Structure formats: C-alpha cells, structure tokens
Automatic annotation (TrEMBL):
UniProt-listed Pfam families: Mfa_like_1 (PF13149), Peptidase_M64 (PF09471)
GO MF annotation list: metallopeptidase activity; signaling adaptor activity
Protein name in the entry: Uncharacterized protein
Keywords for this protein: Leucine-rich repeat, Repeat
PROSITE patterns tied to this protein: PROKAR_LIPOPROTEIN
UniProt superkingdom: Bacteria
UniProt key word Transcription: no
Length: 1117
C-alpha cells in the first residue's frame, strides 16, 4: 500500500479514468466510488514550493456501511480527485445510504466505531510534509455514485529552526519535543486509540502532552543551515500553550518557543506557523510576508489579473494592492483581480496591523476574518461567498458584502460599525443589537423574516425591501432619513418618532393606516399597493414625489403640497381632485378613479398626464378635458372615457398619445412632430392624417369602422394594428421601381466547396433586391462580402475549409422595405430589432441548393436590403443529435457599412443560427426572471447541444463552463459566472461580461468557441468523431488572452449597440415551415399601398394594450 504523496504543484485538472481500467474494477450496476479533498488549508510551503495533498495510484481506503465493514478500495490513478476500485468485496449500499470512509487503510480495523489511528507521539522529519496524517469522509450514494470529500483529523504546526539550535540529531536521538498544556498526541502501540467515524470523535484510554520529533543527521540534510518541520497534532483549544523544547550541549532543557494558541485554537486541516523570536521586527516582517504568500496561494495568485511583485524579494509595500508601513501590512486592495478560493484564518491571522480588505468582484467562496482583530474596512461584494465570518471583528466600521450567497451574517456585536451593505444574499435573520454608530444599512433582496436593529440612534439610511418581514420597529431610530421597506409582509408601520424622515418607500405591503404627520421634512413618499383608505399629507409641505396608487382612498388633499412634482394616485376611489395649487406638477397619474371633472389648466409644467380608465365601465367619467395650457406635455392618456372632442394642437412635444375608447370623430396630430405612439382604437374616426409624424413607431386604430384611409408618406415605417377596411394612402402619391426581369430568380451559385470533411452547408440569399441590383452585381457582391465576413471570426476562420457555401438569387418586385413594397420573401422590419419573413418560401429557395436530406443541418442567411439595425434568427426544432441540429434562418438588414453587417452576421448567423448559442444580454422588462416553462424548454433543447453559453445555476463548480473556470490557461479570458442572460436580468447566467452574444463585439467567449468547434467537427466528420477537451484547448491557444492587458474588459462603454431581438424558437421541423409573417403584415392583392407590419403577433389589441399599461405601471416603483 503506497503512502499518500504530496506533489509540488497545484493540481487543477481532474484525471478521468479510461475504459480499460474501469472495466477491470467495475461491472454494470456497481457503485462508482470517487474521492477528493475538502478545501482545508493543509498546504505545506518550503523554498517557495507549494504542495497539496493528492492521491497516488494504489492508495487504499476503508469503507463502512450499515451492513459491510472495512471494505478495501484502491485509487486507480493519481490526482486530487480520482476513482477507486474494490480490492475484494464490493460495496452494495442502497440509494441515499450513508457510507463512511478513512485513510490510511488498516487491516485490523473491524468496525466504524473503532478505526485505528496512527501514532503522533513519535514523529520523524519529512521534507515538505508531515509524516503523520489521517483523513476521513462521510458520503451518500446518489444515482449509484458515491462521491467522497475527505477531510483531515489533525492540525499541523510548521516551525523553521536553525540547525545550530538542535544539538542532538541523527542516530535516532530526539531533536526536540513539542509540549502542550492540552492533550496533543496519541500512541497506538497498545491498540487503545481509536476514532469513531460515526460520531466523529476520539475513543481512547490515554493521551499525551508531548510529541518527540526526530531530525536526521547533517549528511542527510545535505548541508542545510535550517530545517522546516511539519508536526501533526491533535486539535487544540485557544487556551492551549505550546512549547518547543530542546537541550543544549550540557543536556539542559531550553525552550525555543513558548506560544499560546490563536483565537479558535489549532483547528483540524490547518497549518499554523510558529516563529522563533516572534516579537523582533525581522520575524514580524517575515510573518507578514509568509501570511501574504499563503493568501496568494489560497486565492490562486498565479492566475490573478495583476500579481505584480507578489512573492518576490521586493518590499511587500511594492506588491500590487498592498499598503504597508515598515513591512507591516495595513490594507489589501485586490478588487476585480480574479481571486478564487477561500480566505481562511491562516492567510490573515499574522497580518497584525491589517485594517482594510478590498476583494470585491472576484470568485471567493469563503472569508474568515475572525482572527484579524484590527480590521475596520471590508468590501467583498459580488463574489461567490456562502460564508463570511466576522463574529470577532469588533472594530469593524465598514462592511460591504452584497451580491453573494451568504445565509448567515453575525453582526450582533459591532460597536464601531457605521456602514453595512449586505443586499442580494440569502440571509434569513439579521440581528444588529449593538451598533450605536451605524449610519447606513442596506439589507434588501434577501430572505429576511426577522430584522432587529436595536440600538442604532445614528442610523440615517435603512433599505430592507424585498424580503419577508412582517413587523419592523423603527421607533428608536431618531436620525432616520430614508426608510425603504417595500415588498414585505407589513400590516402596520409606525414612523411617528422619525421626525427627520425624508424618504419613505413602503409600497407593496398590507398596511391599513399610515401616519406621516410628524415627518415635516419628507420629500418622497411611496405607499402604493397597500390597504389604505385615507392618508393625511397636509403637514408634509416639502413633498416632491407622492405615490399612493393601488389603495382604497376616497379623498386626498394636496393643497398644502405646493412643491409636488410627481403624483401617482391612480387605482383608488377618488371622486374629486383639486390640483389648482400644485403648479410644479410634471407627472400626474390619476386614472382609474371616479372623477367626473378635472382641471389641469394651472399646470404649465405638466409632462406626463394619465386620466383615463383601463377597466371597462369602471372609473373616471370625464366628458371633457382641456390640455391647451400644458405646452410641455409629452405623455397623455384619456383612454376609456366619454370625450367627444380632443384638442392637442398646443402640445407640440407630445410623444405618446392614448385616446382610445372615446366617441371622438376626428383628431388632428399634425402639430405633433415628435409623436412616436398613437393609440386611437375603438373610436368614431373617419379619417386620420399622420403624414407629419415622421418619428411614429406605433399606431393602433382598429375598431374604427368608418375609418377608410390613413394618410402617410413613403419615408415612414412603423408598427401598426388597423382594421381590414382601412387603407394606408400616400398623401402626395408615390411610384416605386418594379422588376421586370425574373430570369435570375432561383439561380444557385456555389461560392465555396469544402476541401475537408463531409461539407457543412450555408446558404446565403437576399431580400429587397430588384432585377437591376442583381444585374449590376450588387446582389452577388453582397453575398460574397457576407461569406468573407462570416469566416473572419474564430473558430470559423480556422475551419473554413469544412464548409460548402451557396448563394441563391431572389428577385424582389421592389427595392428595400417601406409601406407598399413587395419583396421575394415578404421580409418585415418589426418592433425594435425584430425582423422576419416567409420562412416557407425561404426554405423553398434553399432547397434549390441543397437536397432534402441535408436541410436539417443547414444554416440559411437572409440579408435584407436595408440600413436599419436589426436581426432575428428563427430556429427550428432539431430531429436529434447532441450537436445543435435544426435548421435556422437568420434574417438581418445589411446595415450602414461593412462593420455593421459583420457584427450582426456574427451574432445572428454564427452565434444563434449555427452554434445554437443564446443571448447573453439583458433587457428591462416587467418579468426579469425566467419562468419554469422557459427553463424547462431551454433545458430540453440543451440535450440537443443548444444554449452552451448560458446556464441556470450560479454554482461555479457545476455551471456548464466550470472546466474553463478551473483551467489556469483561461485565467485572463474574463470568465466567471455573471448574472443576466437570455434577456433576463436575474436567474440566468453567462460566462463573460462581454462577447459577440452580448454586444456583438469582443469575439466569441471560450464556451461559445467550444460549442462552435464541437458542431463543426460533428458535422464534418460524423458521429464517430469524439470530443477531446485537451485537443480543443490546443486549438484555442490562438484565441486565449495571454495577459492582463489583452483581457476582455469588465466595463462596457455606453456606445454599444442595443440588443438584437431574441431568437424565435419554432416548435416543429423545417419541412413544416409556414409563412410566419402575421396576417396584416402580408401584402394584400388590392390597389392600395399597404406596409409589411412590423410586430410579431397581436391577437387582441386590448391584450397588447394591457401589457403596455402594465409596463408603464412599473414606473411608479
């Protein structure tokens, strides 16, 4: 049986077992056993070499179940995690059954309550390691797999001693003794020392206070002047006193070290360095340097973004991020520096003067600050922390730990704490009972059910929204100026004592009454969506913004609130509203009340005014409204009332007008040149002229049976919903060029033939190109340019010879896209960046180049003759396979120049269309987290190789690109787990801050390159091709960032393109494709000019309008 060996390198990659080895030890149905090591600090350092515990082939462990005892399993290969095979009887545990394991294996061990321990009483020097060790693990069988994470039973002392201080050495003479005031060793000669695996405790008749340590002779030490010893000890409490004793030449005792244990004691799995003469300046500086090196190793320092001078012989004050005085570290500033791992006691305990630790925006999973007594400032937000131990940091005054996964945070005794930000975690309870200096507290977006603030008389800012708090006491917070407690379970809120309060947000609770009369300085009050029947704000004369919508308020007096600029009172029961004294009002939302009259002529600054009803036959019943004295009005809605006339001639800045469901027969918007949205459905209109509204984006006029025509001009392009009987008519008449020569229609041109592999098919075609643009070479040049641009990006560039590229000519009747034009594929420019066309006809043309049996793997690219920025990929369900099958059609305009074409081409065709990648951007939307159905659909397609660049887990160990996160060769590629992807801000994660799939620039990130590489090889070489990660990494060397200066930036500039439209997933195979252009979008066979409508689908206008209104409602928050 081999001993466990200590390899002098950091092992990252997990060695996988080959089929031949596995078959020797494992048959079908056997339980697979794997073992690794818990991330303790059993790391030994000497001569700047780092050693970690790892398995050696042949290492034997013992396994116990409730039915089986001491089964011997041996390691099948080397590594820090490896598979084990049975050497004799195999384990037969049931699903979820507990299994106990230990190392080193002992034949004489009969049960799990009495596992024999190695002797610690007598130890010999071993270079770079301890001679003694014992590790154990407890695991459960899951899906026929037993995964064990071993941990250490012993703690370890490290001491470096000059050999001249050890006179007796060699020839088995005791070199020195390690003596403790507590039991420090055990001895197993009499078979009396055991470890109970089940209870994880010692069972013994006797222990020892001494360890005898033997040092070899000078010859064996090869001329060393000093020796570093690692000594295994039993864990000690913080009350223990350690002495290192030797003898002088006269045989008299001498003590080299007398040392009290640190706070928390000597804990299992940790190495503690003891120093000779530890109080002299040179030793203190050495301790600090050693601590920094331990910090460096613990956080993967070799792969930091910037590790300048670290571990060098330069003063530590010159190490990147370190501030030090006379060698004593005062602050560590390593934000955004690619730190990963854990910062535990051994890394920081010897930094005696450390006052500030700044490690935000990294990949740390645990920080233990319990033995840094002088630390005052800690910022560690946006890491992967599940544990943050600050229980003993009583000097802490500034803590920022937001954006982690922390479930427990002990801040119960922090008398110096002034600022605490712990938002966006998983904290369920927060008890701040002794922080009299606290000024700001951010704990929103947690899982809090209990918040005890206690004695914090200086607290000015409290933000605890979006939790599950049912009660909160702020009566003693006399300095409070801001209180945010929205989205909780509050039924009452008492702020009577908080007379300094300026801002109160308590919306989305269940509060029945609210008294703010004793808050004269309040300027912002938002109590929307509660159960209030009244609210008195007469004494709040400083109010600037008031939101009280979604209650049952019947009357409200705002006559004293003359500074009010924003007022939301919609969805209440108001029968009257007087705003005559509120001349500063810019926003007034009073819709869905019971108003019969309303005068806003005294509001010259009014910009946003909603006074309509969005529920049928319920709400305000105004018959007239005068907005002639509101020249700054930009948004105006009078939906669903009894207006017969509406004059907006004095509102030239109007951007959004909603006047639907009123018996109005005509409306003049000729003076509204800034108008972008006009909602005028279900009215009595007979004519509408929008020709002077060049910026119009949305028009809704359905439900106007007498509206026969709408006047427009050719330059206009907008989304619309109109009746079938309504015509768009050009005001001054317009003629378009029409093709006459269709001889080239459907002609196939082979642009490239594959010279390697089976050939991968891409078909290019264009829409909106007339016969004359084909004849003069424009069409062909565009296809060839697009082909070259497609292969300008890796991995496509390196594997171009695997592709067949075709062009199919499509002759359109008209050129470009505007109202009244007809094109070969009926392509449309939709809302935002949505585009599309007649998929059935596109695929019909693609089959002119490809046989049917190659269509399921084909990519079809349709380039639209337009300069608009847009793009949408239509992705058909695959027929099978794990390499992203399924036909895709990527539609996009050619844009304003070659760069615009290239960027959209890479995103839509190279990313979505070929590689089946998802979007990595987010958009602002009402639902900002994915639904369960969305997740299930994405995961179902993931089994076919789709969506390799996004995931729904935050765990860096299981996320799809975890292998890249743990591969130091990708240290500078900006890889991490970033929240926000697939359009959602929350609950979906992407690999990098920027990439082609987010901002169309910056190249494909590593997981995306891997997906492209994988599909290229599967299509080119068939099912027999097998993926090999190391082969991909070897190819990918040309793409990886080599150093910090070439690293993908984390900060994105403001000039990035707006997001392209999300891909449209078509549930069905390509051969069932239809004309996907919505009905009103299609060119109808009449003598009228009709536009290709630009929206995807609107079934009922009321539904669309309701979604719009709901979106606007979120503005109040």
């Amino acid at each position: 049986m081999d001993k466990m060996k200590y390899i002098i390198q950091i092992l990252v990659a997990i060695t996988l077992l080959g089929c031949t080895d596995e078959e020797i030890f494992k048959s079908k149905g056997d339980i697979e056993v794997t073992a690794g090591f818990a991330k303790t600090r059993t790391t030994f350092v000497e001569d700047d070499g780092v050693t970690h515990v790892t398995w050696n082939t042949g290492d034997a462990i013992g396994l116990f179940t409730k039915e089986q005892n001491n089964l011997q399993y041996t390691a099948l290969n080397d590594g820090d995690e490896t598979k084990f095979g049975a050497l004799g009887e195999k384990i037969t545990a049931t699903e979820r059954e507990k299994v106990y394991a230990y190392y080193p294996y002992s034949i004489g061990t009969e049960n799990l309550q009495q596992v024999k321990l190695p002797s610690l009483a007598f130890q010999h020097y071993k270079r770079n390691a301890s001679e003694r060790d014992f590790i154990y693990a407890i695991g459960t069988v899951d899906n026929n797999i037993l995964s064990l994470q071993f941990k250490h039973l012993f703690a370890f002392l490290k001491i470096t001693i000059p050999l001249e201080l050890i006179p007796r050495r060699g020839d088995n003479h005791t070199a020195f003794v390690v003596r403790s005031s507590e039991k420090i060793a055990c001895h197993s000669n009499e078979d009396i020392l055991y470890f109970n695996l089940e209870k994880e405790e010692f069972t013994a008749d006797d222990f020892f206070n001494d360890i005898y340590y033997f040092v070899p002779s000078d010859e064996e030490l090869e001329g060393k002047q000093e020796i570093t010893c690692y000594i295994a000890i039993l864990p000690q409490t913080e009350n223990a006193e350690i002495k290192i004793q030797t003898w002088n030449d006269d045989g008299e005792k001498e003590y080299l070290i007398i040392k009290h244990a640190p706070s928390g004691g000597f804990r299992a799995g940790n190495v503690y360095t003891l120093y000779l003469n530890e109080n002299d300046n040179e030793t203190i500086r050495k301790k600090e340097r050693d601590a920094l090196i331990a910090f460096y190793n613990a956080t993967d320092g070799d792969n930091w973004s910037n590790n300048e001078n670290w571990c060098s012989d330069k003063p530590v004050s010159q190490w990147h991020g370190i501030t030090a005085t006379e060698g004593l570290v005062q602050s560590i500033v390593l934000n955004d520096n690619n730190l990963k791992g854990k910062i535990l006691v051994s890394e920081l305990a010897n930094l005696s003067q450390l006052e500030a630790l700044w490690v935000s925006n990294n990949r740390l999973t645990e920080i233990d600050l319990s033995y840094t007594p002088k630390i005052r400032t800690v910022t560690c937000e946006n890491n992967w922390l599940t544990t943050l131990n600050i229980s003993k940091n009583n000097r802490l005054d500034y803590l920022i730990c937001s954006g982690n996964q922390i479930a427990v945070l002990d801040v119960s005794n922090k008398p110096e704490l002034e600022h605490l930000h712990c938002s966006n975690n998983k904290i369920e309870k927060l008890d701040i009972n002794n922080s009299p200096k606290l000024e700001t507290l951010w704990c929103n977006f947690n899982q809090l059910s209990l918040l005890n603030i206690g004695n914090s008389p200086k607290l000015e800012y409290l933000e605890c929204g979006v939790n599950s708090i049912s009660t909160i006491d702020v009566s003693n917070l006399l300095s409070l100026k801001h209180l945010g407690c929205n989205d909780n379970l509050l039924t009452e809120l008492d702020v009577h004592n908080n007379n300094q309060l300026k801002e109160l947000s308590c919306f989305n609770n269940q509060i029945k009454s609210l008294d703010v009369s004793n808050c004269p300085s309040m300027n912002n009050l938002h109590c929307d969506n509660n159960q209030l029947s009244a609210i008195d704000i007469s004494k709040n004369r400083e109010l600037v913004s008031l939101g009280c919508c979604g209650n049952q308020i019947t009357n409200i007096d705002i006559s004293n609130n003359t500074k009010l600029s924003t007022f939301y009172c919609h969805f209440n029961e108001l029968s009257s509203l007087d705003v005559s004294r509120n001349i500063e009002l810019e926003t007034l939302w009073c819709h869905q009340n019971q108003l019969s009259s309303l005068d806003v002529t005294m509001l010259p600054k009014l910009k946003s005014f909603l006074c309509g009803n969005y529920m049928t036959n319920v709400g305000n019943h105004l018959t007239t409204i005068d907005v002639s004295k509101n020249p700054l009005l930009e948004t105006f809605s009078c939906y669903g009332m009894r207006l017969t006339d509406l004059d907006v001639s004095n509102n030239p800045l109007l951007d959004n007008l909603e006047c639907s469901h009123n018996p109005i027969s005509s409306i003049d918007v000729s003076n509204q040149t800034a108008l972008t949205q006009l909602w005028a459905y279900s009215m009595n209109l007979s004519m509408l002229d929008i020709s002077n509204n060049p910026h119009l984006e949305w028009l809704a006029t359905q439900g106007n049976p007498n509206l026969s025509c709408i006047y427009i001009i050719p330059e206009q392009s907008f989304d619309y919903q109109i009746d079938e009987s309504t015509q768009f008519v050009y005001k001054d008449g317009t003629d378009f060029y029409e093709s006459v020569d269709y001889a080239q229609d459907g002609v196939v041109t082979t642009l490239q033939r594959a010279t390697q592999g089976n050939g991968i098919d891409i078909v290019f075609m264009g829409d909106g190109y007339s016969d004359r643009l084909i004849a003069d070479g424009t069409y062909n040049n565009t296809m060839r340019l697009a082909m070259d641009k497609f292969f300008s990006e890796e991995p496509y560039k390196s594997f171009r010879n695997n592709f067949n590229i075709y062009s199919v000519t499509a002759v359109s009747k008209n050129e470009g896209f505007s109202i009244g034009k007809e094109t070969a594929f009926s392509s449309f420019l939709g809302s935002g960046t949505l585009v599309g066309g007649n998929d059935a006809r596109v695929l019909e043309y693609a089959q002119k180049a490809l046989p049917i049996n190659r269509m399921d793997e084909a990519l079809v690219i349709v380039m639209m003759n337009s300069t608009q920025y847009a793009g949408t990929c239509y992705m058909y369900h695959p027929s099978g396979g794990d390499y992203s099958n399924g036909t895709s059609i990527a539609y996009f305009p050619v844009g304003t120049d070659e760069t615009a074409l290239e960027e959209v081409l890479h995103h839509e065709a190279g990313g979505h269309g070929f590689a089946k990648l998802d979007d990595e951007y987010t958009i602002v939307q009402e639902i900002n987290t994915p639904t369960e159905d969305f997740i299930n659909e994405r995961q179902r397609l993931a089994s076919n190789g789709w969506w390799k660049n996004i995931d729904f887990t935050y765990n860096p160990m299981t996320v799809k690109w975890s292998k890249f996160l743990n591969d130091p060769r990708y240290a500078y590629d900006g890889l991490n787990v970033f929240e926000g992807a697939s359009t959602f801000e929350k609950g979906v994660y992407r690999p990098t801050e920027n990439s082609i799939m987010r901002y169309n620039t910056g190249g494909f990130n590593a997981p995306s390159r891997e997906a492209i590489y994988y599909r290229i090889h599967k299509l080119a070489y068939g099912e027999s091709w097998q993926y090999d990660y190391e082969q991909f990494v070897a190819y990918d060397a040309i793409n990886r960032k080599a150093n910090v200066s070439t690293r993908i930036p984390y900060r994105i500039t403001d000039d990035n393109k707006i997001p392209l439209h999300a891909p449209v997933i078509v549930k069905g195979p390509w051969y069932k494709a239809k004309n996907n252009v919505p009905k009103q979008q299609r060119i109808l066979p009449r003598n009228i000019h009709r536009s290709p409508q630009k929206i995807t689908k609107v079934t009922m206008m009321d539904d669309a309008h309701e979604s719009y209104i709901q979106g606007r409602e979120t503005l109040i928050k």
